[in-house]
Amino acid sequence: MKFGIVGNLTKETLGEAVQRLLGTGEKRLIEFVTHDEIAKIVNKETGKKVIAKKDTAPLEEIAGECDILVAFGGDGTILSAARLVGRAAVPILGVNLGKLGFLAELSIDEVESFVDDILNNQHVIEDRMVIKVTAEGDDLQFFGVNDIVIDKSNSSRVIDLETYVNNDYLMTYRADGIIVATPTGTTGYSLATGGPIAVPTTDVLTVSPICPHTLTARSVIVPDSSVVRVVVESKLQSVRVTADGQQEQMFTPPVNLFVQKADYSVKLVKRKDKSYYDVLRSKLMWGKDIRVTKVD
After folding, report:
1. CATH 2.60.200.30 residue spans of the chain
2. Are 239 and 232 in contact, with CB atoms under 8 Å apart?
3. CB 260 within 8 A of CB 131
């Protein structure tokens, strides 16, 4: 089994975390292929060539050379890794060097024991839905593991978003924008807008307005077989389309945008001994009274 290594190059602890994984792998005779930019960081920090050139590859080639891709960083790093993997179906293991980390739930201190779990086949590989957005008369095709956001960009004015589900008119959201989220993405931007949390294995999409001008406007849950069409007619302002907060494109109305389930999924490596509900309780501090502080 060969592990690929990618990560957020801006994280100060990246080099140390990668070294710990390499040390774990060395004891277990695991092969690694490391992003060449990460190798430079590790070799510079250690003052010696810990990672040989033959064990590195450019970022765009990593997924094609490994059996499991280890991504060091936060959830944004996992989303970038998912885009890197695409349809290759290489499982992604997230190691959290960030803050919240719903996707990158493994801490660096847990890596060694979890590597053993992987080698002993004591892990779970979850399929996570991917959605895509296209535009009528344009070659736009963005993919998102979390969400597709259609918004007013930098304008101070609200925008009218005429929304359909499978050609059935839903409503016209007068709002800052609209979020179409996968179940994975319901703990992201969608949650911040007041949207519901959906368990990742559910076959749904959520449609949520961003700061709607109509107080009765609410999130709607639709089957994942749905095509969500958003029509923007007003030429007074531009429309921005964003996938996972990482890819974006501007449009001048009128424009028809279509969001639907993609024809592939992303595979995430998860622990057998930790359920999604455990993650929710831990990350959202459910059941804890945050008013109580520890007194020494």
Report:
1. 130-263
2. yes
3. yes
- pTM of the entire predicted model: 0.91
Which residues of the chain are in CATH 3.40.50.10330 domains? 2-121
Q: Which two tokens stand for residue 68?
A: 């499991």
Residue 30 Cα distances to 42, 108, 122, angstroms: 18, 18, 17
Fold of 2-121: Rossmann fold (3.40.50)
| 28-42 pLDDT per residue, tens | 889 999 999 999 999
Q: Which residues pair with 125 in a beta bridge?
A: 269
Catalogue the active-site residues: 75
CB 15 within 8 A of CB 42: yes
Please write the tens of the pLDDT for every residue from 268-292. 999 888 889 988 998 888 887 766 6
The residue written with tokens 């810990």 in the block is 50
Given CATH 2.60.200.30, say whether it is the number of domain 130-263. yes
